[in-house]
Amino acid sequence: MEKTITALEAQKRYADRINVFLDGEFAFGVSRFVGAWLSVGQKIDEIKSRSLISADEKERALQYALRFIGYKQRTEAEVIKKLEHLEFPSEIINNIMSELKEKRYVDDKEFASQWIESRGESKPRSKRYFQFELRKKGIPGEIIDVALENAPDDLVSAIRLGKTYLIRYSAINDDEFRKKMTGVFSRRAFPYSIVKDALDELLRIRKEEHEV
């Protein structure tokens, strides 16, 4: 059954949305983008009305997702979780995710690669710790494994990290230094064998500096 659009009114709270009135009664609200082709006097049936509402819901979900990833790079799992929290239907979420991935707005491979590259330089940590962080963000295991192939060697990372503490702990003796650095390395999930080798190198550096 067709109804006639009798009014199109801008919403007071959201200027980018309009209220659609059919046969003199409020029917639904849509974004101006979705309802751009609507006009007063136009006739639409129930199927078209449902199509408009569905398209509007998809547009709202897309805009929420774009704002969410606009602040910083996100993983696929993080975006899905956000949209689920906003109670969008799974069908729309799947549709949105396909579009975001196709346009590479969301790319787990790129995310994992950049995560390791940036933090490998600024905040050295072990490959095991990288793995933990990326899993927590919902990155699939096979993607993590590939990204870790380009991660810095654990011993190199441990020594780089340790060097940042040489000045801070310069006043303590070697035993205290070893104890404190063991804690630092453990919190970043470095294996024992790596910790031992890294400490040997750091203690060697400390000795050289004290002899100068």
Question: What is the strand and helix layout of this fold?
Answer:
Blueprint: E1 3-10, E2 17-22, E3 25-31, E4 43-44, H1 46-71, H2 76-85, H3 90-102, H4 108-122, H5 127-136, H6 141-148, H7 154-163, H8 174-187, H9 192-211
Helix pairs in contact: 1-3, 2-3, 4-6, 5-6, 7-9, 8-9
Please provide a written account of the structure.
The protein has 212 residues and is of the alpha+beta class. The protein has three domains: 3-102, Winged helix-like DNA-binding domain superfamily/Winged helix DNA-binding domain (Arc Repressor Mutant, subunit A, Orthogonal Bundle), CATH 1.10.10.10; 108-152; 153-212, Arc Repressor Mutant, subunit A. Helices cover 59% and strands 11% of the residues. It contains nine helices and four strands, in the order ββββααααααααα. The protein has helices at residues 46-71, 76-85, 90-102, 108-122, 127-136, 141-148, 154-163, 174-187, 192-211, and strands spanning 3-10, 17-22, 25-31, 43-44. A four-stranded antiparallel beta sheet has the order 3-2-1-4, with helices on one face. The N and C termini lie far apart (92 Å).
Number of strands: 4
**Helix-strand string:** EEEEHHHHHHHHH
> Judging from the principal axes of the Cα atoms, what is the shape?
rod-shaped
The CATH class of the largest domain is Mainly Alpha
Briefly say what this structure is.
It is built from nine helices and four strands. With 212 residues, the protein is of the alpha+beta class.
